[in-house]
Amino acid sequence: MDQRFPAPEAQTLLDWYDRHARALPWRVPPEARQRGVVPDPYRVWLSEIMLQQTTVAAVKAYFEAFTQKWPDVNALAAADEADVMKAWAGLGYYSRARNLKACADTVARDHAGKFPDTEEGLVALPGIGPYTAAAIAAIAFDRPATVVDGNVERVISRIHALETPLPQAKPDIRALTAAITPETRPGDFAQAMMDLGATLCSPKRPACSLCPWQAPCRAQAAGTSETFPRKAPKAAKPTRRGMAFVAVRSDGAVLLRRRPPKGLLGGMSEPPTSTWAPDAAIDDTKEAPLDLDWKRCQTPVRHTFTHFHLEMTVWHAHAPSTMLAPEGHWWSPRHELGGEALPTVMKKAVAAGLGS
DNA sequence: TACGCGTGGCA
DNA sequence: TTGCCAAGCGT
User: In this protein, which residues make up the domain named HhH-GPD (predicted)?
Assistant: First the structure.
């Protein structure tokens, strides 16, 4: 052990957390936790699912809406899946919403509405992986689980100046995190690690001068904090092209359909679309669901998904009020359009079709 | 093991 | 404009 770098102490981070913890809607503040206030496992679980790969700023409004609509796991289990998808629309990664509902159903039916209080029990539930199981066990049940998320990976890789790139470094990071996870206040420790990563030990321009773990941090000493964690370069995103068909009935209703339950935007709603491919035709209205006088919108809708760019040509047409929706489709009245389970890209397409 | 899976904010 | 990124999971 290099004598210049003492081991990072959990207590040092907990002292910092007691002074600087972020106030979040799903969190029991450290002073209340110390007085014996315990978190609601339902709220901890819901927040953890929403926060997967998603920013706190984006989650807040959805968390408030969900807990208003469905205050506990039994209420969510009693809900229609379609309503859950509508409430999740815009948040992204829609398999999370399907798994959220499946998990609520399982907890209500098989566990009498109580979440399991161990990592093993939690990780067996839909949508709960190793990170989320550890986080719920620690935060909701104060178990000394090793909680490793993207924040922890960044903090630990900097403290130890780990040269191994992610994801190969994950086993080392897990072991190093386990070694400093305390038996007392493990839930606050996990949340403190995330707050440190989110506020001081940030990806860009970390505020090392304010960090409670400045002394043990090798990257800080070398002035290279921002270069960790090491990562393999990412592949460039290809561009796919396609079409969307926005049919508007004379009373303003718009034709929608449901996407297949799995895969991209699985289970969400959309105006009819063509298949998307790099060389797809964007002017063949024979692919449209109805035989109408289709007109092309001038500006295509651009949208970027995780692994490709989409350039979608939007076609629009007026339909007579008597026209029936094809099998599997429905006319969504204009005043209900905002409440449909439309992902953001499809909201853009509908807006383009209505605006032209 | 590696890939598929959304979105919005920011430099 | 473009790339990068944010509390990962399922297959």
Answer: 50-199
